[in-house]
Design brief:
This protein has six helices and 17 strands. By secondary structure, the chain is of the alpha/beta class. The chain has two domains: 58 residues, Urease, subunit C, domain 1 (Roll); 220 residues, Alpha-Beta Barrel (TIM Barrel). The strands form four sheets. The protein has a five-stranded mixed sheet with strand order 3-2-1-4-17, with no helix packed on it. A five-stranded parallel sheet has the order 8-9-10-11-12, with helices on one face. It has a four-stranded antiparallel sheet with strand order 13-14-15-16, with helices on one face. The longest helix is centred in the first third of the chain and has 15 residues.
């Protein structure tokens, strides 16, 4: 079925370099499903839109957000903290061994995805869209269905031809053949999403060293977390790729603030509900190197410096609300920017 052009009218919040807001604006989406123009509403319309359908939102229209790291199967679950642990984890391979992890996280997520996979997907997608996310990464465990509401990055769910251009690995690569397989994929034009050095244990730097020895560092590499790396590793990172940070998840799980550095290029993802999906720190202050952060719900407070971190979950908090190609919000709840 051919796609028809569409005109979306409303208060257009462009989020461009000049932070322009077009109070009575129109967004023109062509038959190729790409945005043709954004301008003041009213004639003349761009060529090809003379008889296009008009959607008058009566609200604010925002660009969709891209969540570059998630585990959406867990986004039906509350924020998780081990009831028997009073210190943050050192590395990501520790919490799956906690006695509370399997009954509280793995088993419920597995059961929901197998017994009610489509309903689970619809729920977590609705959560994402309400908060403005229109593209997401991290669909492991969730069955594949036609008609996804949110674009899935690694499955390229918005393209009928399913021309997937992304590879991923949650698990640490160990065999030279595995490194070679993904290096060849990147050479062939694929992007590679890879969990790298998640935590604050200095021994995790060996994961970076292994990637460097096996020539996995590549301009198409998207390294997830990389929170154990120091400036010394970043200086060795050639050619430059990208890092995806999950700030609250890293603080909640391993008490690791992101290191401020201009290399490689940083982006953001939320990790999952179990470790802080959409529960971002509201205020940050403190030293020039590490911030002191207070969460919106004050369910956890942590004070961080370059040498120590106090990590004290007060209670097992409930899941907070989730976080649209453009998101439409009623005018009354639209935020303003200065």
């Amino acid at each position: 079925m051919p796609v028809e052009p569409l005109i979306i009218r409303g208060r257009i919040v462009t989020l461009d370099r000049r932070s322009r807001v077009i109070e009575e604006g129109a967004l023109y989406v062509g038959a190729d499903e790409k945005i043709t123009a954004i301008r003041q509403a009213g004639p003349p319309a761009p060529e090809g839109f003379e008889s296009a359908r008009v959607l008058d939102t009566g609200g604010s229209v925002y660009p969709g957000l891209i969540d570059l790291h998630n585990h959406i199967a867990y986004n039906v679950l509350p924020l998780w903290a081990s009831p028997t642990r009073s210190e943050p984890w050192l590395r990501r391979d520790q919490w799956p061994d906690d006695p509370d992890y399997k009954p509280s996280i793995s088993l419920p997520a597995n059961a929901l995805c197998r017994l009610a996979g489509e309903a689970t997907l619809k729920y977590v997608e609705t959560k994402a869209v309400i908060g403005g996310t229109t593209a997401i990464q991290g669909s492991a465990k969730v069955p594949h269905y036609d008609g996804w509401l949110v674009r899935n990055v690694e499955k390229e769910t918005f393209k009928k031809a399913k021309n997937v251009s992304v590879r991923q690995s949650v698990r640490e690569l160990e065999k030279p053949a595995d490194f070679a397989k993904y290096r060849k994929a990147m050479d062939d034009g694929y992007s590679f999403i890879y969990h790298l050095a998640e935590g604050r244990d200095p021994s995790l730097i060996e994961e970076f060293d292994a990637a460097r020895r096996n020539k996995l560092l590549h301009k198409r590499l998207l390294a997830i977390h990389s929170s154990a790396l120091t400036e010394a590793e970043f200086k060795k990172w050639r050619p430059k790729g990208s890092i995806v940070w999950s700030p609250f998840s890293n603080l909640w799980s391993t008490a690791t603030p992101p290191r401020p550095t201009g290399r490689p290029r940083p982006a953001c993802g939320s990790a999952s509900a179990r470790t802080g999906h959409r529960r971002r720190p509201r205020t940050c202050s403190g030293s020039s190197r590490w911030p002191t952060c207070a969460t919106a719900s004050s369910s956890a407070r942590r004070s961080t410096t370059s040498s120590s971190c106090a990590w004290r979950p007060r209670t097992r908090p409930r899941r907070s609300g989730g976080t649209t190609p453009w998101a439409v919000l009623p005018r009354a709840c639209a935020p303003t920017f200065s």
